[in-house]
Structure formats: structure tokens, C-alpha cells
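Researcher: Please predict.
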Amino acid sequence: MTQPPGYRLQIEAGQLDASRFDQLVTAARRELDDGNAEAAAAGLRTALGLWRGPALSDVADFAFAQADVARLEEARLARWRTGSKLTWPAAGTPASPASSTGWPPPIRCGSGCAASG
């Protein structure tokens, strides 16, 4: 729909991948809290399976998207770490997060890290 100064996108709940990711992570947390690690891991795999490259890659360089990109990438990494501690198969197997999502990413260092070579 056209609306000054541009366009307005109207979507239904659950149509946005980022929202669906959050819903799946919340459900996986509930499963983990209930002691069901296998269901939690399956939920996290499903959530991470929604990812196809970097967060908001089409608009990531624009200032308005920077905070959301950082939040989504940190959430993705945190969920990957959580899932890797549960019941995922070894890396490189067809069901592992590394083979299905291209994750984990390279380890990022802050300004205090020394490069190893």
C-alpha cells in the first residue's frame, strides 16, 4: 500500500521469519524447561533452519537496520550455542547445524583479541 513518504508493508503474525524464529525459540525454551532436551533441540534446529544467510542482508548496510541486524545475529549465535549443547549429531552429519545452516560462523574477536597464525 502506498503511504507517504513511501510504501507500507502489511503482514500477518508469523509471516516474518524473524518473528517465527522467536516463536520457535520460545517453544524450544519451554521444552527445555520441561526437561525435554530432544524436543528443545528439534525446535532450535527448526528455528535455525529458517536462516538463509546473514540477517536482513538486503538492507544490512542501511543505518535503520543496524540494531536489528546485530540483535538477530546475536540471537542466532546464542541459539546455535544452546542447541549445540543439547542433542545435535556431530558436525558434518546431515542433521548437524553446521551442515544444514552453514553455521557456526567464524569466531569473532573483540578489540582485545590477538590474531593467531
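Model: Residues 90-117 have pLDDT under 50 and may be disordered.
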